[in-house]
Amino acid sequence: MERSPQGRSALRLLLALFFLSGFAALLYQVAWQRMLVFYTGSDTVSISLIVTAFMSGLGLGYLAGGRLADASTPRRNLMWFVAAELGILLFAAFSRQILYDWLYAAAPGLAMGAAVHYVLVFLVLLVPTFLMGVSLPVLARAFKLSVISEQARYISSLYFINTLGAGMGALLTGVVLVRAMGYGDAIWVGVALNAVCALGAILLGRRLGASRAGDSAAQPLADGPLKATPALMAWSAHYLVSGFAALSLELIWFRVLETMIKSVALTFSILLAIYLISMAVGTVVGGRMAARRDRMGRERLFLRAQLLLYGFVGLSFVALLAAIWRVEAFGFLWEYLLSYEPDLSPRILLHTYAVVPLFLMFVPTFLMGLSFSVSQAVIQDRFEEVGRKVGWLQFVNIVGSALGAWCVTWIGFRLLGTAVLLKGITLIGLVYAAVSFRRHVGERWRAVLAATGLVALVAILPGNTGFWRKLSGVQEHDRFICLENESGLSIIKRFERDGELLGVVFANGLGQSIMPFRKDLIHARLGALPVLLHPRPEQVAVIGLGSGGTLYGTAARPETQRLTCFEIMSNQAPAVRAYAEQAADTAILSLLADPRLRLVAGDGRYQLRAMGERYDVIEADALRPNSSYSGNIYSKEYFELLRERLLPGGYAVTWCPTPRVLRTFCQAFPHVAGVPGLLLIGSDQPIEIDWAAIQARVDAPFTRAHLARAGIDAEALLEGLEPRLAVIDTDTVPVSDINTDLFPRDEYELPYTGALLKRKLREALGL
């Protein structure tokens, strides 16, 4: 392509279109992932499954797109991009009906385990993700530049702009679009962007015309598939390892930062945006640096970038742990890590959502992007192989990413823990040190120094328990219990208060509840009041174990024959047991040994729907309304599911943290009673409040002994509740502004408006 003003403007237009395409792709990923968790469950394994299925389609699209690109003329490749955008648009327009209305709502019998979930999600997402993958290779051949080095830089520009669009899509989807429109309507923004991309590419093709777009005779594949040369195999190995490391680090960073931040619903979008935008910046810088070097210089730059990448991964965590442990200026951060509640004050927001994530993630992801550009400058040496090389190497990278996701989720977190995983990722740098030592004699001292530094960093990094103890703000070894696996991070910190050691339960950094149970009467009341109100609660279900306080309250009636507790974190019960044995807490030990108790690991909402059993009382343990995925248990559809799973006259119970929860709950149940600010009880039959009967049930020997075992005074448990518990006239409750599955308003509610947050941040910075 000529470097004419028309050519440059055409290229800028194409890059703008690919930015919008990347934006739409991440918008879809965020929205479709949310829809799919209703079918698969919202636990870490299920989300990894969805991400892997998404990436699998992308990988196949890259592979097929590469062969298609090299077999087509530049102008025809531009039309392939148009076709891909239109195909994605068509699927997206019906994606809510496919992923939510059909897959989740109409096909419950298809829920048959992780393998079936993966296959079905992969098949459902195959068309749009395949088309997303096709886009990069065909656009890599949509223009033929004057020299191959310019072609490589053009490919880097495509990758940069698409990744930048993806980062902005992740950020704005979570922070703006979902909060304003909900997941279902946000999809239409993506549909509009795909339409702009398709129309813009059509107009671009017409503007360039057949001659300027290179629309000559078809250019068939001259040599068939790519030849497996030693150079291609070496770069394929790198792209495989790079994909593995990138996804592994993403999961590790997200677990660490989610725990430090005490995650709310917006955390994922913000962290993903930092990850992608940092990579995009590295890509454009790498393209410029590669343009100023010869082939040997590019290879040296690439190897140095890899050594710095893995070295910084280890060094950043060593520095972070040292700073929050010893540096006085970070004392406020240490106190926050120790604390119970998430803090959205500007000072904490600035450090937990910007300073710390950028410190850990920017340099490595920047170097990932830089390495992509530099490697393309080395790899691309023949015009006729541009598409296939891009497609093949991106396919291999996706394979590595999928392996990283599954290995970290199924093996790493479960058997090794985050700290040991970090050590292993850091040591990948030794491979590049060895390559540098072998290929570049003048670089050998650098390679030896880098290898020595990597080994030293791994030796300095603490083991898993010490790693999490420091990131949890705890100094005493004997006051910290930590269990980590693929389902999450369960921590119990012991604090001294009024001469007594309390156990505080944290799940992924968020404080959940306090032990012994007598110190946390709110959870005991949440569990006990509904079963004391019900005439005969034989079958009881509780979603969420936490400390066991709510579950213990529901176990107070002798009539109860079965207690089913669903807990999304499979390591929660062992952590609570470890605390109980350490503290000699007989109430917890008796609860976990109760023959009536059945613990079910997994997403409670998913399990409740899949198992199909019915109960006299169903209750969810208290969950903050702005926590990630909390909207799944405060939505109208969830409350309707509870109603379906109740036996005649049964009670569905929820904590009521916001007026919106009240409005939503009253739309699902014809009969509602509640205690303002505490709980709501819904039923398909009128709820009779008989305090004489409640008092008689409390005075039953079994109930008295059960409460006494936990040191709970029966009178204190019910104190002040009689005048507050009342039947609610649902006809008087407004029906607007409620939570739904696809518009969880409470989950995305923020304490600050944009203007107020900006002012407070300026004050915190002294501006």
Descriptive account of the structure:
By secondary structure, the chain is of the alpha/beta class. An eight-stranded mixed β-sheet has the order 7-6-5-8-9-11-10-12, with helices on both faces. Strands 1-2-3-4 form a four-stranded antiparallel β-sheet, sandwiched between helices. A hairpin with a 2-residue loop joins strand 3 and strand 4. The longest helix has 65 residues.
The major sheet is characterized as: 8 strands, mixed
The helix-and-strand class reads alpha/beta
Radius of gyration: 28 Å
Shape descriptor = globular
Low-confidence stretches: 210-220
The CA-CA distance between the termini, in Å, is: 49 Å
How many alpha or pi helices?
A: 27
Helical content stands at 55-70%
Give the oligomeric state of the chains in this entry, treating copies of one chain as homo and distinct chains as hetero: single chain
Major sheet: order of its strands? 7-6-5-8-9-11-10-12
**Count the strands?**
12
Would you kindly provide a brief summary of this structure?
The protein is of the alpha/beta class. Helices cover 64% and strands 10% of the residues.
